[in-house]
Amino acid sequence: MQAVTLGPAGTYSHRAARAVADDVAFRESVTSIVQAVADGSFERGVVPIENSIEGSVTESLDAVANSEVSVVQEIVTPIRHALLAQSANFDVVASHSQALAQCRSYLDENYPDVTLEAVASTARGVERARADPTVAGIGHPDNASASHAEGSQTESDAPADDLEIIAEDIQDQSSNATRFLVIGPESARSDAGGKSSLVVYPNANYPGLLLELLEAFAERDINLSRIESRPSGNRLGDYLFHIDADAGLYEERMQDALEEVEGIARNGWVRVLGSYDTRHVLY
Ligand SMILES: O=C(O)C(=O)C[C@]1(C(=O)O)C=C[C@@H](O)C=C1
């Protein structure tokens, strides 16, 4: 099976995707990954959805809410960042905005004067560092080795050198972890699995609306592991809700809760992303 994820080679998403597919292709944004699965170009996609320090990857939340895809698994991995450069003399630190944010205190304390540059992924930041001695990248320490960059597009044809690992474990909390969703086409949606994800757009606004939504689950003893509101984009103050429940769609209580939620959202819509299990991947 071929999976598509955030590239170039060496991203954390790439490491997570290797747990589901031997053959991994790359795109430069999570929106384009979700689209590539929705349009049938790839059977599976792997996108980051949430980090323990920085919270939601909102681009991923919006992309799954607006596309005809399913969630078939979630992958949780520890994230341990390294600072990589040609030498300790650099003026710019380039990485994915999530990674820069996860290392905010470390960077403030140790490099208060550097310029932070947000790029499409951690591996793209490491590529910048390999091409420019004034730039450091933040990414997985394995990216220091030039052979790890194989398969990614380098900016020149000259053989690349290894980078120095200037510092390791620079994330602001040692427990740093990211949750990724493995997505598939709608036809891959399953009722089997211990967790379920829904996106609910009530297209309504009245006192107690959110309480009603929560009660649909609470009254059936279903724990919610996450609820997140995102702007609908239609008008200010209008939201859709991403709901993760600790129950499978195969369970009667979950089907009953879903029926009630569909009633509450009768003026809007409910997207059932599917039921799935969690996989913990260490690398
Ligand atoms: O840039 C990468 O390496 C990614 O896979 C993206 C991403 C993210 O968007 O959260 C994934 C894991 C880490 O949290 C940092 C960055």
Automatic annotation (TrEMBL):
Q: Where is the composition biased (Polar residues)?
A: 144-156
Q: PROSITE patterns, from UniProt?
A: ACT (PS51671), PREPHENATE_DEHYDR_2 (PS00858), PREPHENATE_DEHYDR_3 (PS51171)
Record's Pfam families? ACT, PDT
Q: Which residues does the UniProt record annotate as the domain Prephenate dehydratase? A: 2-185
Q: Which SUPFAM superfamilies match?
A: ACT-like (SSF55021), Periplasmic binding protein-like II (SSF53850)
- Say which enzyme class the record assigns: lyase
UniProt pathway? Amino-acid biosynthesis; L-phenylalanine biosynthesis; phenylpyruvate from prephenate: step 1/1
Alphabetized PANTHER family for the sequence: PREPHENATE DEHYDRATASE P PROTEIN (PTHR21022), PREPHENATE DEHYDRATASE-RELATED (PTHR21022:SF19)
Specify the protein name.
Answer: prephenate dehydratase
Q: Please name the source species.
A: Haloferax marisrubri
